[in-house]
Design goal:
By secondary structure, this protein is of the alpha/beta class. 42% of the residues lie in helices and 21% in strands.
């Protein structure tokens, strides 16, 4: 199995915290879509032998495209590759794009899952983030999508920023539960270099993020959603049983995927590649039938470190038998030795030769993974 990711690099507004590749101008939209179709052709052999299980439209804001533009890309995948009949096809969307007309048109496409960027149901929070939608649109867009017959929906929320009290955060979580959405992705606010938020903090116009606030709200998130029957299947993701994101789960399980579009990444198990994060240069390169990508061949240490990082983030954990099978006994032996510190702290539990983070350990997931990493040989 394998997946395909489309990066749609357009947004109506620049969120203050975002460092993804995007443009607020649609000037090159038609040329860029033609280039993405050309890249699909040039990359026909990248996932050779694999059946496509998932297609994911991310960005940027894919919902700025019309239904026909989305469907043409899906059709091109189906024309050039074998796609499962029940493939999961996800489109990220902003609430302000989900008008009744647009949702109705998308109902006639192959899209069967929505990822809606709510972030907060409070107007002041959305304005602080410079989001394009309003609190009213956050609520109405979800109901509109549900009324159109879409059941497989995930909502994005953000926590750990100064305006968000624990009471407001609890209300945001409760709102999602009340909406009967089967999947939730929740992220701690991070300050990335070269973002407006980083600039505001540097200039003293905005307070820095508070790590203890973020940790406290993460615990509140875990406790509330567990009580409501959601499974915490990945650090930032919660779902009703069997409602996991198949596309993202495949990332964490090391399943190959092809990324199409500027800044998109691809992975085939032995190498990783990424496209140039520049729309005009991406278009120019593909007009000359040249892939605008850099490639990195992964060393043995790279591959095991990636497995450590991704597997520990999930409820399925890091399988020590798989470590031995894929990387050798020495890696397993050293990994077990390195794990002992975190077992003693009760941050990790071992069950059937699988290392799984405890709730407390999830607060230190990145630290634990980096400590377990192997040096390049």
């Amino acid at each position: 199995m394998a997946g395909i990711y489309f990066h749609i690099p357009f947004c109506k507004k620049a969120c203050y915290y975002c460092d993804f590749h995007f443009s607020t101008s649609l000037k090159y939209k038609d040329e860029l879509l033609l280039s993405m179709h050309r890249e699909l052709e040039l990359q026909k052999g990248y996932l050779e032998g694999h059946v496509i299980e998932t297609i994911y439209f991310g960005g940027g804001t894919p919902s700025v495209l019309n239904a026909s533009e989305i469907q043409k890309l899906i059709d091109h995948v189906a024309d050039t590759r074998t796609v499962l009949p029940n493939a999961e096809i996800t489109m990220e969307a902003n609430p302000d794009d989900l008008s009744a007309a647009h949702v109705g048109a998308l109902r006639n496409t192959s899209v069967n899952r929505f990822s809606i960027g709510i972030q907060s149901f409070y107007e002041e929070d959305l304005q602080w983030m410079n989001r394009a939608h309003t609190a009213a649109e956050a609520d109405s867009s979800v109901k509109r999508v549900q009324d159109a017959g879409f059941e497989n929906i995930t909502l994005d929320l953000i926590y750990g920023f100064p305006l968000l009290t624990d009471e407001k955060w609890q209300a945001n979580i409760r709102k999602v539960i009340e909406l009967e959405v089967p999947h939730i992705s929740a992220y701690s606010m991070t300050v990335e270099d070269r973002t407006a938020l980083a600039h505001f903090i540097k200039k003293g116009k905005q307070a820095a993020m508070n790590e203890s606030q973020s940790a406290q709200q993460f615990v509140l998130l875990m406790d509330t959603l567990k009580e409501a029957g959601y499974e915490h299947y990945e650090i930032s993701n919660f779902a009703r049983p069997d409602k996991y994101s198949r596309h993202n789960t495949n990332y964490w399980k090391g399943i190959p995927y092809l990324g199409i579009g500027p800044s998109a990444h691809s992975f085939n198990g032995i190498s990783r590649q990424w496209n140039i994060a520049n729309n005009p240069k991406y278009i120019e390169s593909l007009s000359q039938d040249t892939l605008p990508a850099e490639i990195e061949i992964l060393s043995l240490a790279d591959r095991i470190n990636e497995y450590i990082m991704t597997s520990l983030r999930t409820m399925w954990g890091m399988d020590l038998n798989k470590v031995e099978q894929d990387f050798g006994y020495d890696y397993r032996n050293q990994t077990e030795i390195n794990l002992q510190e975190f077992i003693d702290k009760r941050w990790i539990e071992i069950s059937n030769s699988t290392a799984i983070l405890t709730n407390e350990g999830r607060l230190f997931a990145d630290h634990i993974a980096s400590t377990l990493f192997f040096e390049q040989e």
